[in-house]
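Long-time lurker, first post.

We've been arguing in lab meeting about whether 2-oxoglutaric acid would sit comfortably in this protein at all. Half the group thinks yes, half thinks no, and nobody has a model to point at. So I'm putting the question to the forum: if I give you the sequence and the SMILES, can you give me back a predicted structure of the complex? Inputs are below. Any interpretation is welcome too.
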Amino acid sequence: MTATDLTEQTEQYWKDGYTVLRGVYDEAQVETLRAESERLWELEGLDDDLNLRTEFRRGPDGTHVFDRLDPVLDISPALNGAARHPRLLAALATILGGDSKLLKCKLIRKEPGVNGYAVHQDFLYWTWLETEPDALCTAVINLYPCDERSGGIGFYRGAHRQLIPGPPDNPEGDCDPARLDESDIVFPALEAGDVLVFHALTPHRSGRNDSELPRTVLLPSYCVSDDDALYQRYYKREVVRRCQELVGFERYFERNDALV
Ligand SMILES: O=C(O)CCC(=O)C(=O)O
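Top reply:
Settle the argument with this. Predicted structure of the protein with 2-oxoglutaric acid, as tokens:
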């Protein structure tokens, strides 16, 4: 990456709502990250739907398969190093105009045949931070070549100026696709090691992985902030939210009650 590259990329980020950084990680580093994602996918208990780290998507046969580890950095020094890589943090500081802190980070591995994500803006989930949307972004660290066919993420170019309301029956929900122009969506083709950075308000979605390789990305999000404990604050709140809203303690009790 040269300073000239970053000038262009900074302009593209603010104009289109995303940009691509190349050369942040070398081949050996990408190989290490791939091996690490393989190791993590073999851990016991990932297919337990009471595991607070995992989330599920519909797989090829219509049943649910886990596709995401979130949080993941506390169990992976290699991924922690990638999310805090000095070259990435320096590039983000240039693009965002200030030093940022890690907010959250997840690993998503979409196996062949596994479905994608409906259109949304990340900022909707971060309003509680009471931070300007311009301070927040996500990096997509790409571990295999990917494009639209392999379930890569598509971004609505230039649609990052405001939070878009949800559909009439759920105005507080994810943005109404009817308010977006489908001709604006771009699915950047990425090489292994490429890092796509997108603004917290950029609407994005992804489809099924119709390729033969797992579409695997590490997705750290960042915020321009002085708060050294931002990551810890995020997950303290998130774990409580999942217990209350997604899982419900009563399911743990049901399991305990069934023990003889
Ligand atoms: O991994 C994908 O296909 C999409 C993920 C995404 O949009 C998100 O986590 O916000």
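For your lab meeting: The chain has one domain: 3-258. The two ends are 61 Å apart (CA to CA). Whichever side wins, do check it experimentally.
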